[in-house]
Design brief:
485 residues; alpha+beta; Catalase HpII,  Chain A, domain 1; 30% helix; 2 domains; ten-stranded antiparallel β-sheet
């Protein structure tokens, strides 16, 4: 029976499928948002056994070395001294393709870094782009469905993709990156990595600053022209995997320089007042002229895993894995990922996936979680509970001890889109491109856009014109050239 009204899987009408419920317009998301939770939980269980996103990946072990002192910003012990090294594992991936897809497809690239610190694992699960397509996690399953296969034809569908983007102006910044040559990087060694979200650093005094993480490749940026990406996809679909593996095996260890952009809360309030942009909005970047990058250290990959499945396939990352001195932010997409990633790993790898070597912390572990599949240690005779201490928690025994941030407002669903500026930053990015890069962008976008209906084409060109009239004119000209062939 067809029902045009959106409901939960239990048939309950959905009041709002566009905005997550939060504690105030800027506050954290609420667990009582059962529609959001149901969507994310079901989305995480849509594929067996490969990852729903980031299915095709490569990985390697290495080390992170601190090169500059940032202890004024963070008490995290992995940054405690210049020269200190921390073991790492990095997994690169394409995002939308299946496990057997080609490495050179037009797609963002995952750039997930695990730091095995003395205080537990820190996972920085980012991409090779500083932004993303959406700003609210309630739309993530919908967005990814448009990047996967049409349920009718089982084919990739430009109509589905541009139907979502043309009705979601906030996606324009990331779509511009995607259809530039940055959408087809030349392997994993020649691209940058970003934490993308706004995170935070906390120092010994309990002071918090907001930060953006950047990893700049020391190999130099290299991208593929669209025709070369298509050719390589047919000749060597494992191109990026082969390049990374062979480089490490031959001793040409890839390296990235790590930086942070730093913004304190007073700067945030001033910047938001002046620009109208939300510092925690994942579709936006912080201008480097105002918030310059500060060097932190160097990431080097120097060892291929002995077994791909054991390490690369079973690696279970989560942005919720942070150590004392690091923290989160009110970024709604980050807040959603804090739940969704760990839930995905529980389903995909198993209840006790942390026991696997690639996921096991390199420090002592003690908790009260027991039993379940693959409980290979299960803590022997150790008790499986901790009583409540009526005297309170002793000083110095507060665990992570992340300070809170102020909340205000009533709970509800808050839509920031009507007042949002989704065009200035994409326009700024477009104007930074050279004439040749602009033409590549026009041609790359015109290909799939030529396969959608005229209504969507007009709507999309209207968004481009708001970013920069030359952007819309260039894509329109590329569309006319294709139709004239």
């Amino acid at each position: 029976m067809t029902n045009t009204r959106l409901t939960t899987a239990s048939g309950i009408p959905v009041a709002d499928n566009q905005n997550s419920m939060s504690a105030g317009a800027r506050g954290p998301l609420l667990l009582q948002d059962v529609h959001l939770i149901e969507k994310l939980q079901h989305f995480n269980r849509e594929r067996i056994p490969e990852r729903v996103v980031h299915a095709k990946g490569s990985g390697a072990y290495g080390r992170f070395t601190v090169t500059q002192d940032i202890t004024r910003y963070t008490k995290a012990r992995l940054f405690s001294a210049v020269g200190k090294t921390t073991e790492t594992f990095v997994r690169f991936s394409t995002v939308g393709g299946e496990k057997g897809s080609a490495d050179t497809e037009r797609d963002p690239r995952g750039f997930a870094i695990r730091f095995y610190t003395e205080d537990g694992n820190w996972d920085l699960t980012g991409n090779n782009t500083p932004t993303f397509f959406i700003k609210d996690p309630i739309k993530f399953p919908d967005f990814i469905h448009t990047q996967k296969r049409c349920p009718f034809s089982n084919l990739k569908s430009p109509q589905m993709m541009f139907d979502f983007w043309a009705n979601t102006p906030e996606s324009l910044h990331q779509v511009t990156i995607l259809f530039s040559n940055r959408g087809t990087p030349d392997g994993y060694r020649h691209m940058d990595g970003f934490g993308s979200h706004t995170f935070s650093l906390i120092n010994e005094a309990g002071e918090r600053v907001w930060v953006k993480w950047h990893f700049k490749t020391q190999q130099g940026i290299k991208n593929l022209k669209a025709r070369d990406a298509v050719r390589i996809a047919g000749e060597d679909p494992d191109y990026a995997q082969r390049d990374l593996f062979q480089a490490i095996e031959s001793g040409r260890f890839p390296r990235w320089t790590a930086y942070v952009q730093v913004m304190d809360d007073a700067q945030r309030l001033d910047w938001e007042r002046r620009t109208g942009w939300d510092a925690f909005d994942l579709t936006k970047v912080w201008p480097q002229g105002e918030f310059p990058r500060l060097e932190v250290g160097v990431l080097e990959l120097d060892r291929n895993p002995d077994n791909y499945h054991a390490d690369v396939e079973q690696a279970a990352f989560s942005p919720g894995h942070v150590v004392p001195g690091l923290g989160f932010s009110p970024d709604k997409m980050l807040q959603g990922r804090l739940f969704a990633y760990h839930d995905a790993q529980l389903y995909r790898v198993g209840t006790n996936h942390q026991y696997l070597p690639v996921n096991r912390p390199r420090c002592p572990v003690q908790h009260q979680q027991r039993d379940g599949a693959m409980a290979v240690e299960n803590f022997g005779r150790a008790q499986n509970y901790q009583p409540v201490d009526a005297a309170g928690v002793p000083d110095g025994d507060h665990g992570h001890g992340e300070p809170g941030w102020a909340l205000n407002g009533t709970s509800g669903r808050f839509d920031p889109r009507p007042a949002a500026d989704d065009y200035t930053q994409p326009g700024n990015l477009f104007r930074l491109l050279s004439a040749e890069e602009r033409q590549d962008l026009f041609d790359n976008m015109a290909g799939p856009l030529s396969q959608v209906d005229a209504t969507l084409q007009d709507r999309w060109l209207g968004h481009l014109a708001k970013a920069d009239p030359a952007y819309a004119e260039g894509v329109a000209a590329a569309l006319r050239a294709r139709s004239a062939r």
